[in-house]
Amino acid sequence: MRVAIAGAGAVGRSIAGELLENGHEILLIDKAPTAISVERVPLAEWLLADACEITSLDEAALQRCNVVIAATGDDKVNLVVSLLAKTEYGVPRVVARVNNPKNEWLFNESWGVDVAVSTPRLMSALVEEAVSVGDLVRLLRFSHGDANLVELTLPPEAALAGTRVGDVEWPEDTSLVTIIRGTRVLTPNKEDALEAGDELLFVAAQSREEQLEDLLSVRHEEA
């Protein structure tokens, strides 16, 4: 998979290193000569250019990219890069970094953003996840379809503890994507039984989050 990353600062380089380890082809773009540190990520391609300029993105052959990551420290730049990547080059997946939480509302499909990543939101979500059992925690917002990546740790008193995944009547517009059980990461199938303490990751419509939390966190009283 070919990935272009706009912004070769610490964040961009870190992302590039992770993706290179997973076998992806990486292009780092930055307009600051001081940011071009080939020796820090030697396996990546490097381009000294302004990612907000069409001529630069033509040079980067953005139409060949499967993913574009707007990872600069400037929200205005990240929005422009996202919009150009989606509208001018048809990049299938655009991920954008949100630096100022006040700007998060802008990072949506109108600006070409598929996934907006806000560091303050992630940090607060991780804190909530660490202290909350039985509460739904929103980890990421996906612009398309008004869907979120959410997590819930199944409490001991949950009604669904011991129930097979295939026997659960999940709310519409929700999908269980991963079960984290101790140190194991499980791809759920219909025969897997849910256990107390499981961390469940869902992609869910925001309108279904309350229904999903009720289903998973409360032991229903028998009639």
UniProtKB/TrEMBL annotation:
Residues 137-218 form the RCK C-terminal domain. GO terms for molecular function: potassium ion transmembrane transporter activity. One of its GO terms (cellular component) is plasma membrane. InterPro entries: K_uptake_TrkA (IPR006036), NAD(P)-bd_dom_sf (IPR036291), RCK_C (IPR006037), RCK_C_sf (IPR036721), RCK_N (IPR003148), Trk_Ktr_HKT_K-transport (IPR050721). Residues 1-117 form the RCK N-terminal domain. Signal peptide: none annotated. Keywords: Ion transport, NAD, Potassium, Potassium transport, Transport. Gene3D superfamilies: NAD(P)-binding Rossmann-like Domain, Regulator of K+ conductance, C-terminal domain. It comes from the Bacteria. The keyword Transport applies. Pfam families: TrkA_C, TrkA_N. This is Trk system potassium uptake protein TrkA. It comes from Streptomyces auratus AGR0001.
